[in-house]
Predict the 3D structure of the following.
Amino acid sequence: MEYRFSDTTKHFQSSAVRDILKLTQGKSVISFAGGLPAEELFPADAIKAAFQAALSSGTAALQYGLTEGYPLLREALSARLQSKKIRVTADEMLLTTGSQQAIDLLARVYIDPGDVILVQQPTYLAALQVFQAKGATVISVDGDEHGMDLEDAEDKIRRYQPKLLYVCPTFSNPTGYVWSTERRLGLLKLCRQHNVLILEDDPYGELQYGEEDFFPSLFSLDEHPHGSVVIYTGTFSKIAAPALRTGWAIGDPQVIGQMAKAKQAADLHSSSMDQQALYHLLRDFDLNGHVASICKTYEQRMLQMDELLSGLRVDGLKWNRPKGGMFLWMELPENWNAQDLLVEAVAENVAFVPGSPFYANTPKLNTARMNFTHSDSDTMALGFQRLERAMNTYAQSLKPSAIPGQVS
Ligand SMILES: Cc1ncc(COP(=O)(O)O)c(C=O)c1O
């Protein structure tokens, strides 16, 4: 059989993270690569009880459900979001199969091949995969640890007339950066002026460490009576468990309605069982208390990684100490290539993600993303011994080798 795939598949790219995870599977590799929550912190007993409760009221949880999502969960979720200053009514919300599906659905209804999408640099690579698969032209905007560079954003909006701008402003993947309120307000103004829809992806906003600061979502700041300029996506993956595959999109009913139609074609609806269990989890379990407790552990792990990085004694190594999320962003010495370092690292049974795949355009080859949430203290310490060995071997390989007969 000669298979005749669609033109769309020409744009498909495999995820670097998934490839690395495959490489490390079944081996005793310590991985700082995946964006994985810590399994030992999953509220497993509460989730078990929630599934039992969902089944105890009959078999409705096993039946087909509404495309928009289980009504009681939508209600409970909108109440939860109100406490985070996000006001939303039922027709402004769509429950999705993870927030990844929300990104995909928005791209399906909003993007035609050749349309321009602006993204922050670096950015979440599975969003890049979605946009590239839709045939969009993805252009990155400069930025720093306080958010997108608004001058560069304005310049690129004028030059390329994008339809959509994708950002993860609170504890971003991959950098862990959080935007200032000033940049948030500036971006909203700019996008409203130029009619550019913002996709605000917020899977990590609740994982906040240390400070009491409140980082308002773009969606909550966009108090505009005539059509929100923001579609906001969130997920239960990082605060409950990713296997429940439940996320959401909220925004103007016109956009949410189109996304719901696209979802009918994609999967009819997300799992009734998972959604009903989540409803019981929200009703019967102290999810906020659970989030506070995992944040304590994640903060300790982040601080431990910060300390271990300080102990590496590599000239020119830089990283940030994030205020939340699951990642810190590493800049290796200028002449290092993180992809080559990864080869040495995997040989030492430790992994991370090189930064390149997070760049839509010109990658910075000496960058890498480190996940600090998944490894416990001993594992992280052992992983760093291996990483140090890998870095030493790699640094040695960069030294010009002595050629016999020459004085080096
Ligand atoms: C920035 C970002 N957006 C979206 C997702 C998708 O998460 P999920 O589909 O599990 O909700 C992830 C997952 O790691 C992510 O890092």
Observations:
- Residues 35, 98-100, 124, 168, 173, 201, 203, 235, 237, 242, 247 surround pyridoxal-5'-phosphate (CB under 6 Å).
- The domain at 58-285 is CATH 3.40.640.10 (Aspartate Aminotransferase; domain 2).
- Residues 232 and 251 are 6 Å apart (CA to CA).
- The radius of gyration is 22 Å.
